[in-house]
Design goal:
With 338 residues, the protein is an alpha/beta fold. The chain has a single domain, classed as Rossmann fold. The chain is 41% helix and 17% strand. It contains 13 helices and 14 strands. The strands form 4 sheets. Strands 3-2-1-4-5-7-11 form a 7-stranded parallel β-sheet, sandwiched between helices. Strands 8-10-12 form a 3-stranded mixed β-sheet. The protein has a two-stranded parallel sheet with strand order 6-14. Helix 1 links the parallel strand 1 and strand 2. Helix 1 packs across helix 9. InterPro entries: Epimerase_deHydtase (IPR001509), NAD(P)-bd_dom_sf (IPR036291), NAD(P)_dehydrat-like (IPR050425). It comes from Turnera subulata. GO terms for molecular function: cinnamoyl-CoA reductase activity; oxidoreductase activity, acting on the CH-OH group of donors, NAD or NADP as acceptor.
């Protein structure tokens, strides 16, 4: 029996989510369906078994359709967006190969904005990245990273950081195109995203944690990283879509940790795994975390999941999905119970 969604915020609204099978996008689709939205998810191949988890979401049989879309093919983008009230553009290549990263990211962003303008959608929410924000060698270590910061494109080029370069130029292209065509655009800039997986495959950000548990990383780097929970990122997208006054960019981060702190937290929760205890750089003092503000999202009512809880849930999810062997004593207790 279909759920009565008439009292939910998304009732009667159709939205398009690009790259719907991705880590963030899968959670976004799940939360949108729970709120009563009708969702069109785009992907390269809807029949690929790795997209099956979307069809199993609550409400999917009534209100989710999967569309075969190539973001560089304007016609296919236009067909998916025509008739939608809103668009969440989450699809993006994740690679350090400049040819696969930059042009597809920029062309995809432009095509989505142009199609959204033609379809007269209410708002486009664009998933950018901290990579478009904080790569700037000239920023003082005491400066607070906020929505006004942009990555230095020349620095990204010179250090061959094509992911951050691609994210920055794609976001800039989206802003330029939206301004020119009168599209209401809001951008979410997440940091490294962790948390439970809905999709069966491991994604780039989860591998970052997995390597510390499998023994493939013998040491940890002397570096810092900002983290945020995937459920918070998905909810941030919905909050900026549903709040009429939302505008501009929204930095989506919970906390900045040194890699040494990450392995400490993992070792406390999961002492049975071969988690590294040595830093690869023992000469220099630990790098200091950068300062940032997430006040804009807090003002919209977002309550961030603490990073410790997020790390714990990430590992539990990796165990459940079979990407991480269960520790021996757990396996024994499962055998006894069964």
């Amino acid at each position: 029996m279909p759920v009565d969604t008439s009292s939910l915020s998304g009732h009667g609204q159709t939205v398009c989510v690009t790259g719907a099978a991705g880590f963030i996008a899968s959670w976004l689709v799940k939360l949108l369906l729970e709120r009563g939205y009708t969702v069109r998810g785009t992907m390269r191949n809807p029949d690929d078994p790795k997209n099956a988890h979307l069809r199993e979401l609550e409400g999917a049989s009534e209100r989710l359709s999967l569309w075969k879309v190539d973001l560089e093919d304007f016609q296919s983008v236009r067909e998916a967006i025509m008739g939608c009230d809103g668009v969440f553009h989450t699809a993006s290549p994740v690679t350090d190969d400049p040819e696969q990263m930059v042009d597809p990211a920029v062309n995809g962003a432009k095509n989505v904005i142009i199609a959204a303008a033609e379809a007269k959608v209410r708002r486009v929410v664009f998933t950018s990245s901290i990579g478009a924000v904080y790569m700037d060698p000239n920023r003082s270590p005491d400066a607070v990273v906020d929505e006004s910061c942009w990555s230095d494109l020349e620095f990204c080029k010179n250090t061959k950081n094509w992911y951050c370069y691609g994210k920055a130029v794609a976001e800039q292209a989206a802003w330029d195109e939206a301004k020119e065509r009168g599209v209401d655009l809001v951008v979410v800039n997440p940091v490294l995203v962790l948390g439970p997986l809905l999709q069966p495959t491991v994604n780039a950000s989860t591998v970052h944690i997995l390597k510390y548990l499998t023994g493939s990383a013998k040491t940890y780097a002397n570096s810092v990283q900002a983290y945020v929970d995937v459920k918070d990122v998905a909810l941030a997208h919905i909050l900026v879509y549903e709040t009429p006054s939302a505008s501009g960019r929204y930095l989506c981060a919970e906390s900045v940790l040194h890699r040494g702190e990450v392995v400490e937290i993992l070792a406390k929760f999961f002492p049975e795994y071969p988690i590294p205890t040595k830093c690869s750089d023992e000469k220099n003092p630990w790098k200091k975390p950068y300062k940032f503000t997430n006040q804009k999202l807090k003002d919209l009512g977002l309550e961030f999941t603490p990073v410790k809880q997020c790390l714990y849930e990430t590992v539990k999810s990796l165990q459940e999905k079979g990407h991480l062997p269960l520790p021996k004593q757990q396996e024994d207790s499962i055998k006894i119970q069964s």
